[in-house]
Amino acid sequence: LPAEGDLAAMIASTNARLAVLPVWPPDDPRVQRMPKVLDRLLDRGVEAVAELAAVRPARAAAAGVDPHQVTAFLARGPDGWRTDLEPLVANFGLRVSHWTVGPLELPENAAARVDPADVPAAVRRLGEALPAPLVMLAESAIVATGTEGADELIAKIPAEADPHSIPEWVDGRFETIELELPSIDRAVDAEIDLALRVLHGWLAGAQTVLVRLPFDHASMGSRGLDPGPTLPALRTLADNLQGRRVVTTLRLGDGIHALVLAGRERQDGALAIWRDGRAGDPPRDVAVRLGSNPVEQVTLRGERAWLSQDAAGRHVIPVSPEPTFIEGVDLD
User: Fold this and answer.
1) Is the peptide bond before 25 cis (omega within 30 degrees of 0)?
2) DSSP string of 57-112, one letter each residue
3) Over the stretch 56-106, which tens digit does the pLDDT of each residue have?
4) How far apart are CA 141 and CA 101, in angstroms?
5) Strands, E, within the chain: which ranges?
6) Phi, psi at 75, each rounded to 5°
7) Rounded to an integer, what distance in angstroms lies between the CA atom of residue 305 and that of residue 165?
8) For 274, what's the count of Cα atoms within 13 Å in the CB-facing half-sphere?
9) Max alpha carbon distance in the chain (Å)?
10) What value, to the nearest 5°, has the Cα angle with vertex 143 and ends 31 and 74?
11) What is the pLDDT of residues 211-256, one digit of tens each?
12) Residue 257 near residue 320 (C-beta atoms within 8 A)
């Protein structure tokens, strides 16, 4: 790894809001460097997620679990783990609010699947040692966790999940979700995939969506880490979804999807709209009455264009497979 200051500067250069730092087990050489990295990240306005990636092998063996089965160890293991947690409280406890239980990137040889029955107890015991931790779990811990402690969990949606299936993953049980993005070569396809994942998460009731950008480490240079082509689309999604919620959907024709978004003020209305198909397919015009105000269409790259109206006074929206936002909608 680069020096602590250089690493923090590279992370901050991407405008990241969160960075995942390994903080367990305490004898890991990487872990011993993290307090200094955290200091420099916080100085740059970057929040940290503390990753409890593994248990010391001797403690794991005594509890009869794999070292990466952190959830099972916290829920069922002896109280000796508190000794290992003491330096975390001193170095991170008051400066980190997000904690992961178990590795977010599971080693191929690790038998570390999560038993959903262990989740509430693990969250509770972690909360006894740390001040109000917000706990994030790997995707294998999402299913069948029940309602206890669900507001404290972040659901991680793996890249393999189809965007349209995300509401089934969330199912109204998680206010915060983390999206892992698949590796997609064409920039326009990557933008559309990102937008569909975020929009389906919003439709499912998520109030916060965290996105793990697939950084291209091979392109690291004088500019630092390159977050790839999806960052402009992510900024557009954040700008247009922040402070808004999905209040209903509209049926505007076969294969057309439209989410009605309402903000805190009644006049802060918008649509998110797209249609089934592939990138590059020609747009289909849809005529909709959106009110008497000027209405603007915003692409994922932030490009803006005013919508025209037909003879009946309806706004004409060119709808393509790329989701766009329609701003200025009168919800009344």
Assistant:
1) yes
2) HHHHHHHTS-TT-HHHHHHHS-TTHHHHHHHHIIIIITT--EEEES-SS--TT---
3) 888 888 888 888 888 888 888 776 667 777 777 777 777 787 787 776 665
4) 10
5) 18-24, 47-52, 98-101, 134-137, 153-157, 176-180, 208-212, 216-221, 224-226, 245-250, 256-262, 269-275, 284-288, 296-298, 304-306, 315-319, 324-329
6) -75, -35
7) 31
8) 24
9) 77
10) 40
11) 876 555 455 444 445 566 788 898 899 999 988 999 999 999 999 9
12) no
Per the document, the length of the chain is 332
On the 0-12 / 13-18 / 19+ scale of CB atoms within 10 A, 100 is buried
> 């730092």: which residue's tokens?
21
Spell out the SS3 assignment of 207-225.
CEEEEECCCEEEEEECCEE
**Coil, helix or strand at residue 56:** coil
Token pair of 156 as six digits? 């991680």
DSSP state letter for 309 = B
Contacts of 262 (CB under 8 A, 6+ apart): 244, 245, 247, 268, 269, 331
Cα–Cα distance, 183 to 189 (Å, whole number): 10
> How far apart, in whole angstroms, are the C-alpha atoms of residue 219 and residue 272?
33
**What type of residue sits at position 297?**
Q
**326 contacts 317 by C-beta, under 8 angstroms:** yes
